[in-house]
Design a protein that fits this description.
The complex is a heterodimer of chains A (109) and B (114). With 109 residues, chain A is mainly β. Chain A has no helices and 11 strands. The mean pLDDT of chain A is 93. Helix content of chain B is 0%, strand content 53%. In chain B, strands 2, 4, 5, 6, 9, 10 and 11 form a 7-stranded mixed sheet that branches. The chains are: A mainly beta (109), B mainly beta (114). Chains A and B meet through strand 5, strand 9 and strand 10 of A and strand 5 and strand 6 of B.
């Protein structure tokens, strides 16, 4: 199945650091979504973006819908231990949701 | 607890067999989605139902089928199972049908095909 290019694949950071991850696609999307998945659980929606250039925040999380509609990034500021997990981007393309390959985040105290 | 229930939690079966996974959405949610998560394919959207009707189709194989019943619960049927079908299958539900509407994921059914 199709997957979006998401980078980095994994990150090991110290508590308090900022984190940035992004997703790119060869296709244009109508909606970009960012999810977090904790071990043994289903993904949880963090942020939804609906139009090109849109910048949306949710607490320490900020995400942007790229101008070209082919990319998106997610920033996490001042990371804390509970930020550990796998982060997925997803794009809506003609009634089909396509997920990124995931970024595994580890936060060390 | 998201309010979405999935049964069974674990399922072990043999190649060639057929299984049915069940999902009960959150109370009031009309839309149900099915996803497959495996190590090699990642998270894949399979199919969406809204108020009993198929709404969107993703990477669902012809050997797989789903339906949503009048009480809004949904079942995913997997037949002629192959080793590669081993994966975590998630169901999610939302109030309406848009992708941006918050989807609440169930705990998943882990399918192992031997």
């Amino acid at each position: 199945g199709q997957q979006l290019n998401q980078s980095p694949q994994s990150m090991f950071i110290q508590e308090g650091e900022d984190v940035s991850m992004n997703c790119t696609s060869s296709s244009i999307f109508n909606t970009w979504l960012w999810y977090k998945q904790d071990p043994g659980e289903g993904p949880v929606l963090l942020i939804a973006l609906y139009k090109a250039g849109e910048l949306t925040s949710n607490g320490r999380l900020t995400a942007q819908f790229g101008i070209t509609r082919k990319d998106s990034f997610l920033n996490i500021s001042a990371s804390i231990p509970s930020d550990v997990g796998i982060y997925f981007c997803a794009g809506d393309s003609t009634d089909k949701l396509i997920f990124g390959t995931g970024t595994r985040l580890q936060v060390f105290p | 607890d998201s309010g979405v229930t999935q049964t069974p939690k674990h399922l072990i079966t043999a190649t060639g067999q057929r299984v049915t996974l069940r999902c009960s959405p959150r109370s009031g949610d009309l839309s149900v989605y099915w996803y497959q998560q495996s190590l090699d394919q990642g998270l894949q959207f399979l199919i969406q139902y809204y108020n009993g009707e198929e709404r969107a189709k993703g990477n669902i194989l012809e050997r797989f089928s789903a339906q949503q019943f009048p009480d809004l619960h949904s079942e995913l049927n997997l037949s002629s199972l192959e080793l590669g079908d081993s994966a975590l299958y998630f169901c999610a539900s939302s109030v309406v049908a848009g992708w941006g509407d918050t989807q609440y994921f169930g705990p998943g059914t882990r399918l192992t095909v031997l």
